[in-house]
Amino acid sequence: MKISVVIPCYNELATIEELVTAVRTAPVADLELIVVDDGSTDGSVEILRERISLIADRVLYHARNRGKGAALRTGIAAATGEVILIQDADLEYNPQEYPLLLGPILAGKADAVYGSRFVGAQPHRVVYFWHMVGNKILTLFSNMFTNLNLTDMETCYKAFKSSLLREMKLEEDGFGFEPEVTAKLARSGCRIYEVGISYDGRTYQEGKKVSWKDGFRALHVILKYNLLRRGPSLPRHWEVEAKDRARPPGLCPAPSPNEQRTRAWAAKRLRS
């Protein structure tokens, strides 16, 4: 099975070459490597043109910075594999763990897999306490509306059946991709698995970009796609296939009357 690895890149001069080399040596037999530069201004573009283009299958460029979600849409549209794996360009996630992330899909058990930084026995670099708290709050808030039991909704290490992503209408341009895709997956009835991964988190001095503003944006996106935009997230055949399968634990049943009242109240507050 062909695996397409999509790498969004924005101002990652210090890590992009090492990361792409690591992806090329990942233990995957048939791997397509796609890098999408999102308007970098730090010299990443020159490295991509002169070196990375020689070892990547495709390198695509945005003329200006449009955001991570926009870069991922560009990469997803270009991917030709049966599975799409998202890999950040900052070396926080280890390409040697691809078999772990891909396992449930290759075994026919999952349509999407999340790599969780908060479960399992893999090593984790000790970094920011409040980032951990923020991630867990966002995951809890997302779970309340999707009725999933994820431990790490905001993880940047995810794999999907490519047909699933191509047929899903993704809209968020920035870091809102994570809560948006989670909400739409939950509504579709797709089989979602989670696996424990290692995490080599970096500091702001080392180039970390996400900030508290992105956390507030994520809260807005959770409400937007779970309350205000409740239409079908995928074409009808995905919904039918999901209903034809026995629904695994953790997928979203019809909301109870109490859940409906809570959602209606939150939607009213959001509009006011």
- Number-wise, the strands total 7
Characterize the biggest β-sheet.
Answer: 7 strands, mixed
Tally of structural domains: 1
Measured by DSSP, the beta-strand proportion falls in: 5-15%
Based on the structure given, which CATH architecture is correct?
Alpha-Beta Complex
SS-based class: alpha/beta
The named CATH superfamily:
Spore Coat Polysaccharide Biosynthesis Protein SpsA, Chain A
Report low-confidence residues grouped into runs of 5 or more. 246-253
Overall shape: it is globular
Mean pLDDT: 85
Number of helices: 10
* Share in helix: 40-55%
> Which series of helices and strands comes N to C?
EHEHEHEHEHEHHEHHH
Distance from N terminus to C terminus (CA atoms, Å) equals 49 Å
Strand order of the largest sheet: 3-2-1-4-6-5-7
What is the CATH topology assignment?
Spore Coat Polysaccharide Biosynthesis Protein SpsA, Chain A
Name of the level-1 CATH class = Alpha Beta
Alpha carbon gyration radius: 18 Å
Commentary on this structure:
The chain is of the alpha/beta class and 272 residues long. It has helices spanning 16-24, 44-55, 68-78, 98-106, 129-146, 162-167, 177-188, 212-228, 236-244, 257-271; strands spanning 3-9, 31-38, 58-62, 83-86, 112-116, 158-161, 192-196. It has a 7-stranded mixed beta sheet, sandwiched between helices. α1 (16-24) links the parallel β1 (3-9) and β2. The longest helix is centred in the middle third of the chain and has 18 residues, at 129-146. Mean pLDDT is 85; it is low at 246-253.
